[in-house]
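cache lookup: miss for this entity combination. No prior model stored, computing from scratch. Input as submitted by user K.M.:
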Amino acid sequence: MVKYIINGAKPLQGTVCISGAKNAAVGILPATLLVKGTCRIENVPDISDVRLLLQILDEMGAVIRRLSPNTIEIDCSHVRDSVAPIELVRRIRASYYLIGAQLGRFGHAKVALPGGCNFGARPIDQHIKGFEAIGAMVELTGGYVVATAPADGLQGARVNLDVVSVGATMNIMIGAVLAHGTTIIENAAKEPHIVDLANFLNAMGAKISGAGTDLIRVRGVRALHGGSYAIIPDQIEAGTYMAAVAAVGGDVLVQNVIPKHMDCISAKLREMGVKITEYDEAIRVTRTARLRRANVKTMPYPGFPTDMQPQIAVCMSLARGTSIVTESIYDTRFRYCAELNRMGAAIQVDTKVAVIDGVEQLHGCDVKAFDLRAGAAMVIAGLAAQGTTVIEDVHFIERGYENMIEKLTAIGADIRRVEIPETAAVRTAG
Ligand code: EPZ
């Protein structure tokens, strides 16, 4: 078992460099299945979700060369039309991108239903709606999604998403790239990682326009070719470190960001009294006086991201006054609040709304990471709290944050990662 141990209440000072975007990488890597050639991808975050996807592609016959921790060459020319190993596929949600990629490349896909963070129902009906629109027959059988293109191939079509879905938008884009004719995705999601996937595919010869708007046009091409691409910085990782400075206090330069992607997060932090200074590829975050309360409602991009909801809630738990957080994307993304209340926060949750009465101080204690972003929130709370915080289940955190311990230590945090042998953990429990 791996835990993080944090001795809190130390202001953060210095520079933190943001890694490549997880939610772009987990779409781009499966999309390399569409390419008969070598894709050289830079700024790939070295996180467990990426390592898992690379393992899946390797099992499917991709030739993968890791030129550095963050630069990878992938050649899927000789990948077989095979079923990705279910024990790997079920461990992350992003494995659903294999459906669009296999369907587009081979005209057939068989992929286990995805796993991923558990905060309520996470259906894939909109993905299936898109694949059926371009002619595929899709069945859910035995825990697998089985999709089959018609004999004469996938045909471009218009599909209007009932729900603004990042995954469905990206998956349909991937599935439509090699279809005959043009596919139009209406009510598409507009997140930066969707634009990044479209830019990657276009660099490999696709013809996609409109990514970043709610209408994306995918003109089918006969084949994609190899090429090079660098993934954008991770908007949510950057926001997480910005929220950490806001909660703990200090003065940190967050480097390798696209400030435009941070607009909603920067605006909310400014509203709470944080000083935000924007440069071309960096944002300086300074917080000295106590935070002011604020309200936030999570929305699809460019609104306030749901993946920043737990992190901003920690800031609000320490602000002067009462804040209200409304979660509009997921059913139950407030499980972490019970852990924060054990640290002295005063949060009341009613389904999709959390009412947060700011307190002067949080106190360290033993807590759990319930999912990736809830885990990040526990780290921020531990950094801000008086005393020692021990976080369990940190594997969730390491799915999406590269070198978090090193990055936080470099800006003055007292945090360390300890591995406890399972037997010792059992003995302790006994
Ligand atoms: C992506 O998940 C991200 N994951 C999530 O980030 C993020 O929270 C989410 O987008 C929203 O931004 C990855 O990119 C791997 P959605 P995804 O489809 O694609 C409903 C993180 O912390 N919906 O945009 O699964 C769904 O239930 C993770 O990095 C349908 O109803 O999210 C949800 O309520 C957590 N039918 C809403 O839409 C569908 O077919 C948005 O989901 C698909 C989604």
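stored under new cache key. Residues 22-23, 26, 93-94, 117, 121-127, 163, 165-168, 189, 306-307, 329-330, 372-373, 400 surround EPZ (CB under 6 Å).
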